[in-house]
Amino acid sequence: MTIKKDDLVVVLAGRERTKRAKVRQVMPKENRVVLVETNIAKRHSKPGVRGARQAGIIDIEAPMHISNVMLVCPNCNRPTRVGHRMLPSGGKVRACKKCGSDIP
Ligand SMILES: [Zn+2]
Asked: How far does the centroid of ligand 1 lie from the alpha carbon of residue 82, in Å?
């Protein structure tokens, strides 16, 4: 996963293409991300069903596939692919492919 919680991303596909949103949650196993107030789906729930918080129609933020979003570099403010740079300590840090700056 090259995208983490609280990253800013741009949506590349669907109705909300070009929209920018913050990452609420990442689902590494499914390669999906949930974005704040993006890809809203209507979920119909019946009253009295166990686990339903609320009867009627509720809005949920549906997960979208990681390939449909792109990270926005906090340094140059452009959507970019993510590279990695090795640190002297042996760790890795994400790096913007466009401006080359590190992304924490
Ligand atoms: Zn950049």
From this structure: 9
